TrEMBL record:
Protein name according to UniProt: STAS/SEC14 domain-containing protein
Top-level taxon of the source organism: Bacteria
Species this chain originates from: Tepidiforma bonchosmolovskayae
Length: 123
């Protein structure tokens, strides 16, 4: 799965590109940084297609969020990608701590919402 990671200081961005297949994930250093910042922007604006299994996506979301508390803003302008990611979130199951997630169709409101959130303690 092609992606880019960016450390913007107050939040970390995980930008998905092209076709989401469910392979080649970021390493532990990025996961630690996401938890340290307390905020994640998952930008799927450049996703063309989601080929990954829905339950794999849910498992990935659960595994990342189980590492520590952080809030997430998901940007998905495509209705199909938006719906797929929301459905994956519904299947992620219970977490040991709150992990607020909001969905947006545009990047600017997502970043504004993310920056308004107080990063959770415990990261």
């Amino acid at each position: 799965m092609p992606y880019q990671m960016f450390d913007h200081g107050p939040f970390v961005e995980f930008r998905l590109l092209g076709v989401v297949r469910g392979v080649d994930l970021p390493g532990d250093d990025w996961y630690r940084r996401i938890v340290q910042s307390g905020r994640l922007l998952l930008d799927a604006s450049d996703v063309e297609h989601v080929a990954a299994d829905l339950l794999w996506l849910a498992g990935f979301a659960r595994s990342v969020q189980s590492r520590g508390p952080f809030v997430t803003a998901v940007v998905a302008p495509s209705p199909l990608v938006f719906g797929t990611f929301r459905q994956a979130l519904a299947y992620r199951g219970e977490l040991p701590h709150p992990a607020p997630v909001e969905f947006f169709t545009r990047r600017e409101p997502a970043i504004a919402w993310l920056l308004e959130q107080v990063p959770p303690k415990g990261g």
